[in-house]
Structure formats: C-alpha cells, structure tokens
Amino acid sequence: MTQSQVLILQHVPWEKPGRIATALDEIGLNYQILNIADKKKPDLPAFDEVAGVVIMGGPMGATDYDKYPGLKAEAKLARAAIAVNKPVLGVCLGHQIIATALGAKLHKGEAPEIGFAPIKRVDKHDYFSMWDKQINVLHWHNDVVGLPEGAQLLARTTNTKVQAFRAGSALGLQFHLEVSSALLEEWLEESSMVKDLKAAGGSKSQLREDFAQYNPLLHPLADQVFTGFAARCNSYARALARRDEENRPKDPVIC
C-alpha cells in the first residue's frame, strides 16, 4: 500500500512552502514538492494517493496557460480535489489559481501591493478563529481575483476585495503567512523580488524592520492556519488508509 502524501506545487525556487512545510513536518505527514508550470502533460502522483494539495505563489499569471501550460493542470487538480472534499491551500498565485478554477475573474489590481499592510477580516472560520478585525500581513502581488460563486469571503483590503476566501475544502490566501525570517532573506536575495519591492517604493531595510515588528503576532496566527490545514490533510490521509485497508484482499481461511 502506497502511503498518502500532500502535494505541494511550487512555481519558482524562492516561493517555498516555508511554515506550511513546518506544520506538515510537525505531525509527520509526508509531502512532495513539484514544479509543473511549464509542462503540458505533467507527471503527477495518483490522485487517490494525495491527501492534500498546496499551490504556492509565483510571478506568472494564474491563467497564463500558453506560456505555462502546467497551470491548467493545477486548476484542474484544484477543482477535482475540492469536488471530493480533499484539503486545498493556495497562496498568492495559488489563491488566484483556485479562484479562477472555480469561475472567478482574474485582472490586474489598481496598483501592486508589496510590503506589510493591514487586511480586514470579514468573516470567521476555524482557520481564522484567533484573528482580530484588522492585522498587518505581508503582501506581494499585482493580480487580483473575484470571489468564486458560493465561496465565503474571509478578508479584504481597499484595493483587493478578496484577500482570503474559503470554498468547500479550499482556503485561498492572497497574502504570505508562510514566510519566516529565513525565507524572507531568500526573497531579498532574489533580484526580481528586490526589483518589485523597489518599484513599489519599498526597501530591504524597511521590510526587515516591518517583519520584526509584525512577526510576533503573525507567527502564531500562521501556525493556527497551517496546523489546521495539516490536521485536515492528516484526517484525509487516515480516511484513505482505512479505505485501502477495507479494500485489501483478505487472506483465505484454511480449515
């Protein structure tokens, strides 16, 4: 019997799962990280062996299928997972991939949102039970999406109406809770990220100062969100294991 695992879809080397992977590690749940963005026919693990799906961020557009054909496979996977109540988590680009896969529209925002700025919590969910009405989080995006039909809006900003949403078994986050201090330093070593930061009027030193200020509150909230997701994946993995055990051929009875 093949052990189930969480599938993490990463699009560029520096947009790592960070605290998401930490939460999976802490409960001993296996995961596989793949980059399929440029593959027309990606080699994915068997769907029945996947206990959860994580779709990370990246600089491409969520529907840029001509240049990145693998994004279409990611959207299809997200829809299939949600249809069977398999846990799905999307961050930034991943948030947009899930939303557009469910029928929401993608478009350019009024202006890039890069750096720390407040979001307003609109509604509560198990993932967001500790959240105050307003909190400063790390933003890094240009595109924005609408709310998928039937989805629950969780957070917004003035320029980005959908900062977080829940749709069935999926959670989309436009902002970056996954970033630890170590991962932030990797971002600040990546020239394309620094270029975006400077174009938005930010600086490395200011971003480091803001991270030091806001991280003490964000870290426990990130832990709550990602440990909640990991627990859901673990429950799904246990359900898969029970199903496999029930379907396993029984040894013959010898009289």
Automatic annotation (TrEMBL):
Top-level lineage group: Bacteria
GO cellular component: cytosol
Glutamine amidotransferase domain sequence ranges: 20-183
A Pfam family recorded for this sequence: GATase
Coiled coil: none
Gene3D superfamilies in the record: 3.40.50.880
Protein name: GMP synthase
Organism this protein belongs to: Bifidobacterium goeldii
Lineage of the species this protein comes from: Bacteria, Bacillati, Actinomycetota, Actinomycetes, Bifidobacteriales
